[in-house]
Write a structure and sequence with these properties.
The protein has about 250 residues and is of the alpha/beta class. It is built from ten helices and ten strands. Among the domains are: about 55 residues, Multidrug-efflux Transporter Regulator, Chain: A, Domain 2; about 110 residues, no CATH class. It is about 45% helix and about 25% strand. The strands form two sheets. An eight-stranded mixed sheet has the order 6-5-4-3-9-8-7-10. Strands 1-2 form a two-stranded antiparallel ribbon. Keywords: DNA-binding, Transcription, Transcription regulation. It comes from Faecalibacillus intestinalis. This is MerR family transcriptional regulator.
Length: about 250
């Protein structure tokens, strides 16, 4: 991507891109005409930097995170403590920190392909590790993958309710827990292929369901038939029941 394309996509100035480059945070390649050329890793890193800057993380702290001298969670927790100590009016920063720590909506990718048009961030599944922004999670560090499911209302027509279903993934390591909501159901089976060999907590049997039902229509019909029972048994959020109660 060109500098202008990155400016447009991330709403960032050329001056700021050059500043991050001078600070050693991003290193775009140069083409034959000496123009900067940003690849997938550069774009992901800039998005990561912008997110941390919104949470009042300093450039020096970002350098330490990128160089793996500090963890993101430690920096953010210290930032929350600092807000409390100074009793500053920084509720918006505190809210951003809390939002970062909670479950993240992502699209998954097993191949190293970047979808510039998506509004969701990417969780990459590589051979030996997972990657979310600049956070790498080695499979060897994973104690357990926890799988569950959530739903949202797609559309309503008269009394007919269409539901969207998503897989919730918790990656539990010896250091931390990372929580994601998978937004592209059509490739979830690829994720299941990767994680099925590792310790799992999968009370709904989602690994088998997704690996055995590759057809999306068949998959959605199956989930639609069983989700209400799952929601009741495993205390899952079921907005469809709320709508039905409203119209009774």
């Amino acid at each position: 991507m060109t500098t202008h394309e990155v400016e447009e996509m991330l709403d960032i100035t050329k001056k700021m891109l050059i500043y991050y480059e001078n600070e050693g945070l991003v290193k775009p390649l140069r083409d034959n005409n000496n123009y900067r050329c940003y690849n997938q890793d550069d774009v992901s890193k800039i998005k990561f930097i912008l997110l941390l800057r919104e949470m009042d993380v300093t450039i020096e702290e970002i350098k330490q995170i990128i160089n793996k001298k500090k963890s993101i969670r430690d920096v953010l927790e210290n930032k929350k403590d600092l807000i409390k100590q100074r009793q500053l009016d920084l509720d918006h920063i505190d809210e951003k920190i809390n939002n970062y720590i909670k479950r993240k909506k992502v699209k998954i990718a097993v191949d190293n392909v970047l979808d510039y048009g998506t509004i969701y961030d990417r969780l990459y599944f590589y051979k030996d590790f997972l990657q979310y922004f600049q956070t790498e999670i080695k499979y060897s560090d994973v104690k357990c993958f926890k799988l569950s499911m959530s739903s949202s209302i797609g559309y309503m027509k008269f009394m007919e309710v269409h539901m969207n279903y998503y897989v919730d993934l918790d990656v539990i390591t010896q250091y931390d827990t990372y929580s994601f909501q998978i937004m592209n159901n059509e490739v979830v089976y690829q994720m299941m292929e990767r994680i099925k060999a590792y310790p799992l907590e999968d009370p709904l049997g989602l690994v088998d369901i997704y690996l055995n039902k590759r057809d999306m229509v068949q998959l959605n019909q199956y989930i639609n038939r069983h989700f209400r029972k799952w929601a009741k048994e495993y205390h899952l959020d079921n907005p469809r029941d709320s709508i039905i109660r409203r119209y009774k």
